[in-house]
Amino acid sequence: MHQLFAPMETELPLLNAARKMDKETIIKAFDLYASPLYNYALRLCGDSSLADHIVGDVFARLLEQLAAGKGPNSNLRSYLYETAYHLIVDEARSSQRRAPLEAVTSLKLDVRAGQLGSEEQILLEKVLVAIQHDLTGDQRHVIILRFLEGFSLRETSAILGKAVSHVKVIQSRALAKLRKVFEYNERRTTVSWPRVGRYLTIKHLKTR
User: Fold this and answer.
1) Nearest Cα to 207, choosing from 161, 157, 160, 162?
2) 3-state SS string over the chain?
3) 124 pLDDT band (50/70/90 cuts)?
4) What's the mean pLDDT in 181-185?
5) What integer best gives the mean pLDDT of the chain?
6) Among candidates 173, 33, 48, which has minimal Cα distance to 106?
7) Is the pLDDT reported for residue 7 higher than 70?
8) Cα gap 151→84, rounded to integer Å
9) Residue 37 pLDDT more than 90?
10) What is residue 10's predicted lDDT score, i.e. its pLDDT?
11) Rounded Cα gap, residues 159 and 141, in angstroms
12) pLDDT band with cut points at 50, 70 and 90 for residue 154
């Protein structure tokens, strides 16, 4: 999973300092989470300007909440992604945006992209295209949060505002849909579902 995120044992002190409106801490939090949040938004909206705007709004809302003595008491990362999720959903409802194919296939997994071999990168791009074009909105959010962002079922549940059991159902249906897509196209591609399924379940998905 992403190694640039603060471990849970060090995130709480970071959040406590941020709640005191410590300027250096807030800048540190921005430096830590702005890029991953931008990539998350870009995967879903396909618009770099909009993704940048969403990240700005996420941190603006965080500052407003902290200044009012509110905001997250724990798990700053989940809180930021939850805010981004709602902003993305609101934007999608108002504009009916959908990430274009070229935007999805051009995305790399930030830090991890440099750690992937050429075959794995090709496989990942195929998975991203399938996620964008063959899943429902809820399925897309769950798969991206679980597989690409590395959130646990409980964290994903909190971000999406859905019961853990509901997230499990969405995830199961999404995987089944992806399986059908890759099995259907298996004769026309060198990437088969067994490779995709193993790649996702072993390398990116951990049930916690």
Assistant:
1) 157
2) CCCCCCCHHHHHHHHHHHHCCCHHHHHHHHHHHHHHHHHHHHHHHCCHHHHHHHHHHHHHHHHHHHHCCCCCCCCHHHHHHHHHHHHHHHHHHHHCCCCCHHHHHHCCCHHHHCCCCHHHHHHHHHHHHHHHHHCCHHHHHHHHHHHHCCCCHHHHHHHHCCCHHHHHHHHHHHHHHHHHHHHHCHHHCCCCHHHHHHHHHHHHCCCC
3) low
4) 70
5) 76
6) 48
7) no
8) 14
9) yes
10) 62
11) 10
12) very high
Query: Residue 84's closest CA among 128, 47, 131, 51?
Result: 51
**Domain annotation for the chain: domains and CATH numbers:** 1-97 (1.10.1740.10), 100-208 (no CATH)
pTM comes to 0.70
Which amino acid is it at 31? D
